[in-house]
Backbone:
């Protein structure tokens, strides 16, 4: 993965994490994308979930920067048919919601930066999705 791209995304994520509403807005958008997505979180403590996702996105970025895949493999297990049963086709909605939330919150957002986010996160997302 192009280190300049992962660096751009890493910096962008830093700006997003400074925004109080980033994770609230992400889950509002993601759950709003489909009734079936909302149903996955009916019993979830969303405050805790937002906190866990903060680290999860970091793991996706670190994986693109060459870090070992162990933590993503764990997420692959927990999200698989033996765990939360997260269907592979839902990951596209997840990435669309995330990129839209970045565009909303990062003051330096641009179409090129949104594209970089997609490229940088896709290998890690595919790893989790393909463990289904
Ligand atoms: C839990 C990250 C995609 C639904 C979690 C956790 C993390 C996480 C860090 C908590 C740790 C764990 O339980 O293993 C991610 C990342 C994703 C992703 C990085 C993108 C690749 C999705 C998608 C859905 C989803 C597409 C579909 C609705 C859930 C659910 C939980 C969960 C239902 C458990 C909530 C609970 O404990 O009640 N996710 N997730 N995730 N995720 Fe994901």
Residues:
């Amino acid at each position: 993965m192009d280190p300049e791209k992962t660096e751009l995304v890493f910096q962008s994520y830093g700006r997003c994490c400074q925004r109080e509403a980033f994770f609230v807005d992400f889950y509002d958008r993601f759950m709003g994308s489909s009734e079936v997505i909302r149903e996955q979180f009916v019993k979830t403590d969303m405050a805790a979930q937002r906190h866990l996702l903060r680290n999860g996105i970091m793991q996706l970025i670190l994986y693109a920067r060459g870090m070992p895949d162990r933590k993503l493999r764990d997420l692959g297990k927990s999200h698989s048919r033996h765990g939360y049963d997260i269907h592979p086709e839902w990951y596209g909605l997840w990435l669309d919601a995330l990129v839209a939330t970045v565009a909303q919150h990062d003051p330096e957002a641009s179409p090129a930066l949104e594209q970089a986010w997609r490229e940088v996160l896709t290998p890690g997302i595919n790893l989790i999705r393909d463990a289904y």
